[in-house]
Design goal:
Blueprint (H helix, E strand, L loop, with lengths): L6 E3 L5 E3 L5 H22 L1 H23 L4 H16 L5 H8 L9 H9 L2 H4 L1 H22 L11 H21 L4 H18 L3 H13 L8 H7 L3 H20 L1 H14 L10 H12 L7 H24 L8 H14 L6 H21 L2 H16 L8 H20 L10
Antiparallel strand pairs: 1-2
Helix pairs in contact: 1-2, 2-8, 7-8, 7-9, 8-17, 9-10, 10-12, 11-16, 12-13, 14-15, 15-16, 16-17, 17-18, 17-19, 18-19
């Protein structure tokens, strides 16, 4: 019998289909084989894969900034602000900063910091001292995720590499920008978080309160960190007293340097509705929505946004207090700390990129926990992640990451409630 094309002799002399062997089939089979091999390789070496996928764009970005000469731009803001104060008596004139120093960013430090830096301006101009400041900035930036990671995941743990990579890469390289911006909040955040952890371990918050009062002179909203002792140890009067002291120091600016204080207040009013400075908190999201919708007068943006944010913050903190003060308090003190710290940052009416970068580390730790628990928290966190990704394609794309983080925070909280205990961090093999 003469076989027909594409057939082979079959049972009882019949014809059976012959396996196709054309070039397209061969190519497809090769592609499937390669995909299977690649998937197997990634499954076996997923940590290294994540590290390559995250550290590569980070390195490219840093090299680009160095070559372009625009790295550490916030250092220049501090330098130009103090130079402007020494030249015209105020660092709060944006037009002067732009025309004379090509600085398009506002100087937002309070008068007491201006007076201090003007006395030690060599700290911002002398190459040796600039190098020391840069080294301190680098160390603080490295140790922020180190402090926040569970002890078992810190270097030289096999999980430290991919976790650091995720910190550097997530949400548009926010962890990397914390370093390359040169913003002072990295150093202050490290000092505040480190002292807070030390104070919690010693059951004595005095060192933290001292550092927090100083930190609030750099950025007033660091006062939100006072929420952590309130949530973990029901401290009420101490945070209230610290808030009064910080407010009194700010008020003293009007006595020490009244002209600077008025300039500072005016600058804060100007940037309170500026899209560049409204931040990534719920308050900023509401302002962005109001601006896009053109629904209310501009003068009402801040009052409406602040009211909405206040309701959200009360709900968030009430939820946190109910959990941390209840019987299901986490067995792992570090997990309780991460959850309380996240609540304090999320409650702030203005969250900047550095704050969101700090939240990335708890997000990673919580993500592993909800994966292990496989409870409703995973559904809540997953839904929030989908919403966050969807927001990234809208005019309020800046808040997509915040939505995902808030969803994860609430999700793991619900796992905690329903499970009767806080899930321990998953340990990947």
């Amino acid at each position: 019998m003469i076989d027909e094309p594409g057939t082979a002799p079959g049972p009882a002399g019949g014809l059976a289909p012959r396996a196709a062997t054309g070039p397209l089939t061969t190519l497809a089979n090769a592609g499937v084989g390669f995909a299977q091999s690649a998937a197997g390789f990634v499954a076996r070496h997923w940590r290294g894969t994540i590290m390559v996928a995250t550290f590569t764009p980070v390195a490219i970005y840093i090299v680009y900034l160095i070559v372009s000469g625009i790295i550490f731009w916030d250092f220049r803001v501090y330098q130009s602000g103090i130079a402007a104060y020494q030249a015209i008596g105020t660092p709060y004139d944006p037009q002067y900063l732009l025309e004379h120093y090509n600085n398009k960013f506002a100087f937002t430090s309070p008068p007491i910091i201006v007076l201090l830096l003007s006395q030690i301006s060599w700290l911002l101009t002398n190459p040796i001292w600039l190098g020391i400041l840069l080294a301190l900035h680098l160390a603080a930036w490295f140790f922020i995720p180190y402090l926040l990671l569970p002890r078992a995941d810190r270097p030289p743990s096999k999980d430290a590499g991919w976790m650091y990579g995720a910190f550097l890469f997530a949400l548009g390289l926010l962890g990397t920008k914390m370093f390359v911006s040169g913003n002072a909040t990295a150093l202050v955040s490290w000092a505040s978080i480190g002292t807070l952890m030390f104070s919690i371990s010693k059951r004595n918050y005095l060192p933290f309160w001292i550092v927090l009062i100083l930190a609030c002179q750099v950025k007033f909203l660091f006062i939100c960190l006072a929420i952590v002792p309130f949530l973990l140890d029901k401290k009420i009067w101490q945070p209230a007293l610290v808030a009064v002291i910080v407010a009194a120091i700010y008020a003293s600016n009007y006595v020490i340097a009244p002209d600077l204080a008025r300039g500072f207040s005016h600058a804060m009013q100007q940037i309170s509705t500026d899209p560049m400075y409204i931040g990534q908190a719920v308050m900023g999201a509401v302002q962005a929505i109001l601006r896009k919708g053109d629904m209310v007068p501009r003068s009402m943006f801040v009052p409406i946004a602040l009211s909405v944010h206040a309701i959200y913050a009360v709900v968030l903190l009430a939820f946190a207090a109910a959990l941390l003060w209840g019987k299901a308090r986490p067995r792992d003190p570090h997990m309780a700390f991460l959850w309380a710290l996240s609540a304090a940052i999320l409650a702030s009416p203005r969250i900047i990129e550095n704050d969101v970068a700090i939240l990335v580390v708890p997000y990673i730790v919580f993500f592993r926990s909800v994966l292990e628990a496989r409870g409703p928290g995973l559904v809540i966190a997953g839904a929030a992640l989908i919403v966050g990704v969807s927001l990234s394609m809208t005019p309020i794309f800046m808040w997509g990451g915040l939505v995902a983080i808030i969803g994860m925070w609430f999700g793991i909280g619900f796992d905690w409630i329903l499970g009767g205990r806080f899930p321990a961090p998953a340990r990947a093999s």
